[in-house]
């Protein structure tokens, strides 16, 4: 599995670590976690950490579009932590498609990303 999820109900934060390629099946774990946290906390924050990440398979792209449409108002902030220039560009491309505040952090700035979300 390319995704590891940790739900922090006290902080209203979802921590998502991804590697390899995201698949449609990864969203069967991701989306229910998001929905549980939204139900518990209202608007949530997401820490999205990419390590050795290679993007999305085609089925996962469609799941991501459906997810973004459904939850565009439920996510307050997204901190994206990555290692590659294309991941930084991806964070900028995502901004017009969500009501969330999105900020990119380099791989060695994960602690700063956590502080920004708090």
Task: Provide structural commentary.
This is STAS/SEC14 domain-containing protein. The protein is of the alpha/beta class and 118 residues long. It contains 4 helices and 5 strands. It has a 5-stranded mixed beta sheet with strand order 1-2-3-4-5, with helices on both faces. The model has no long low-confidence stretch (mean pLDDT 83). It has one domain: 2-Layer Sandwich (Transcription Regulator spoIIAA).
Give the strand order of the largest sheet, numbering strands 1, 2, ... along the chain.
1-2-3-4-5
Number of helices: 4
Distance, first to last CA: 28 Å
Taking pLDDT < 50 over at least 5 consecutive residues as the criterion, the unreliable ranges are: none
Number of domains: 1
Radius of gyration: 13 Å
By CATH, the topology is Transcription Regulator spoIIAA
Structural class: alpha/beta
What is the correct CATH architecture? 2-Layer Sandwich
> What is the CATH class designation?
Alpha Beta
SSE sequence, one letter per element: EEHEHEHEH
Protein name: STAS/SEC14 domain-containing protein
InterPro entries: SpoIIAA-like, SpoIIAA-like_sf, STAS_dom_sf
Pfam families: SpoIIAA-like
Question: Which descriptors would you attach to this protein?
Answer:
118 residues; STAS_dom_sf; globular; 5-stranded mixed sheet; alpha/beta; STAS/SEC14 domain-containing protein
Give a nutshell description of this structure.
This protein has helices at 27-41, 58-71, 85-94, 110-117; strands at 3-8, 13-22, 44-56, 75-82, 101-106. With 118 residues, the protein is α/β, with parallel strands linked by helices.
């Amino acid at each position: 599995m390319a995704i590891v999820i940790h739900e922090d109900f006290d902080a209203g934060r979802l921590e998502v670590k991804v590697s390899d390629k995201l698949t449609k099946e990864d969203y069967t774990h991701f989306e229910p976690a998001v929905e549980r946290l939204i139900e518990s906390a209202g608007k949530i924050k997401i820490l999205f950490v990419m390590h050795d990440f290679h993007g999305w398979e085609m089925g996962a792209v469609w799941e991501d579009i459906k997810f973004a449409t459904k939850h565009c108002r439920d996510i307050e902030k997204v901190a994206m932590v990555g290692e590659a220039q294309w991941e930084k560009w991806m964070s900028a491309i995502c901004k017009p498609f969500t009501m969330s505040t999105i900020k990119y952090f380099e791989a060695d700035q994960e602690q700063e990303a956590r502080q920004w979300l708090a």
